Predict the structure.
Amino acid sequence: MMKANSKTVRSGCICLMIVVVLFSGIGYRMGAANMLNTIMKTAHDLLLNTVFYLMGICVITGAIGRLFVEFGVVSMLEMLLRPLMRPLFHLPGVASLGAVMTFLSDNPAIISLSQDKRFASYFKKFQYISLTNFGTAFGMGLIVIIYMIGQGYFVAPLIGFIGAFVGCIVSTRLMQHLLLKSYPQYATEDAVEAEAVERQQESVKQEEKTLFLRILNSLLDGGRTGVDVGLAIIPGVLIISTLVMILTFGPGADGVYSGQAYEGVELLPWLASKVDFLFNWLFGFSDPHQIAFPITALGAVGAALSLVPGFAAEGWIDGNAIAVFTAIGMCWSGYLSTHTAMLDSLGYREQTSKAIISHTVGGLCAALAAHWLFMLYTLCV
């Protein structure tokens, strides 16, 4: 008991010290009153002008996604994509359904699907565990692409999607390699025990519905799911984005802190400028402020998207940045905040470190591929 109490005190002191040092440094630079005003006003503006905009996109895409499920579009896409699964991802063909579902919604969709024993019976253990990486790379894909198109770009987000696809291959394959290296028996062990698989004929009687009711129910149910996603991104956008923006932006236009929204201490750009040559060569980042997007995407891609309008207003982004942002935003898709929970729900929490390492590499490869593909595109047009 005494040992546990001392551990609690030690961790509490460390946490308190980090918080005090961080906000004391920001408050010393901006002034305590200005810092608090900026935090509140930035969070308020993000809620009104970013979260509700993203929620609107989530509702629309959720409705479209449910409509696609109801009328067989998802099943058609799954059949078209099935031949790509084994040669590219070393996964059974049914995994393509997971890619479509997460693209239309969010990362956890792959988990709800994989918990279906009939679906899981197609996988070996190493493939089953790697679904966490595979599904995450497509999470919120439709929302990210539509958001970027809404910012006035069209080709760059599509190039970013190809980059995310490359990152997904790298992440999934690397995760499988690490698993088989540590657990060779996973190559032959089934994900689900044979006796646990219930292969019974589905005989669900559906009541007859008119075409109008099917469309109406699909749109409303999908829209309701979009509202849930929109509500779920609020903490990430308000907490992570506010902190990142304070560490990214500088004082007001006149160089003086006034406590307005989107003021900050420019710490992240200063750190990025020390290795600017590396980010410029790898990702084509033309401004050190751009590094804030991938850092934020680690925790929440919705929060990362909220940075884009401010970057555009300051003239810090171009087509290449949008392509890279789309690729790394889709591929990482807040994996640091979801991987542990996703693997825990599958029953393999101890593999979290392997999943995070693999997905970190995959996201960097996605950004790298998007940058060089965009460079090739600019040479061809």
Q: What stands out?
A: Residues 32-70 form the longest helix (39 residues). Residues 199-207 have pLDDT under 50 and may be disordered. The radius of gyration is 22 Å. Residues 109 and 203 are 24 Å apart (CA to CA).
